[in-house]
Amino acid sequence: MIIGIAADSDAMVSKYVASIEINMLSVDYRLSPEYPYPILVYDCFDALKWLVKHAPELKAELDLFRNEDIAFGLDLLKAEVSVEMNLIRGVPHSFDSLAPNAPVPQRAFNERCRVLMS
Question: What pTM value is reported for the model?
Fold first, then answer.
């Protein structure tokens, strides 16, 4: 969820944490118009880097969709559908829509184009 100011989401985040006993990270990123795009993307990326660094001590699972994606890919293979799967570590789900011009999304885009053209 992207809300804006971390304090604005404290009550909602606290409810999730209490209800389903999970950890959540609430990022207080800089907002426009004072801080134009892409500053908020960099702030969120810095928070993600912090989370990756501290994941072991927080016991945080960062690959939320990995197992589901692998199972889906295996189901496709069982159905004899041609599949190429790439796991890109250290980026969140839908990372390529957050900062499409950053190096990792560009590399992923180029790799997808290569596969689609083959």
Answer: 0.51
